[in-house]
Each structure stands twice: as structure tokens, then as C-alpha cells.
Amino acid sequence: MTQSQLHLNANWRYEEYGPRRHYVIEAWLGGQRSGRAHGWFEEGRQFVLEKIEMDRSQRSRGYETAMIEELRAKAREKRCGEFVIQGVRAANRGAIRLYESIGAKPIQTDSDIYAYVISPP
Q1: pLDDT per position in the chain (121 positions), as tens?
Q2: Distances, alpha carbon 30 to alpha carbons 27, 34, 50, 60, in Å
Q3: What are the backbone dihedrals phi and psi of residue 104, each rounded to the nearest 5 degrees, phi first?
Q4: HSE of 20 in the Cβ direction (CA atoms, 13 Å)?
């Protein structure tokens, strides 16, 4: 993957509720939206990734990692103490490999659902 192939378009203030800022970030490849991620953050506290999606044909090429690294940079910029990836199913081995490869640690939140946390982001 070269960075010239991937374009990330972010709206860091998609919606606001008090101190919570909801965001959306889109991955564009060849002029087409190929993926997106969304969640929320509270400046100085926590940065949460609720969902990340990538077209099947574009998976495992580093694009998801590039999106997450962009989000982690924003978390650091906003002085968040941790980066949390929510709602990861225990059966989603591909996602778990990705999150563990970037240093995220699992926390079980339900019988088959985990959050993955990187602290500091």
C-alpha cells in the first residue's frame, strides 16, 4: 500500500453532545469510498472506535491499520488517555489479529464481546 492510493476524509465533529464529539472517517481508494470508521471522543479522557469497515476486496492490505493510526493520532492530539475499540466479537479472528498487532489489550465485556484498549493511545 502506498499512501498516495489511500485518502482519508474525516469529520471530527459529526455530532456533539456536551463534551462528547462523534466522528466519522472514510477511506477512499481510486475515487470510491472503500471503508469507514466511526465512534466518539471526549477531549482529555477517552477515544472510542465503535465500528470499522472495509470492503472485502480491500481487506488485509494495511488500510484498516492506516485508519486506526489516523484515529490514534487524533486521540493523542486531543490528549485522550486511552483508545478503546468496542464491540469486538470473540469469533472475529481477523479483527483481533489486527488490534493485537497494534498493541491493543482485550477486556471481556460480555460472554463473547470484548473491548480492545491501547493506553496511552
Answers
A1: 454 489 999 998 888 888 999 999 999 998 899 999 999 999 999 999 999 999 998 888 889 999 999 999 999 999 999 999 999 999 999 999 999 999 999 999 989 999 999 999 9
A2: 10, 9, 26, 17
A3: -75, 140
A4: 6
* 22 beta partners: 15, 40
Alpha-carbon gap, residue 62 to 60, rounded angstroms: 6
In the chain, the domains with their CATH numbers are 6-103 (3.40.630.30)
Instruction: Provide the residue type at 112 as one letter.
Output: D
CA angle 46, 36, 33 (to 5 degrees): 155
CB atoms within 10 A of CB 80: 22
* Residues 6 and 65: beta-carbon distance below 8 Å: no
Give the C-alpha separation, 49 to 71, whole Å.
8
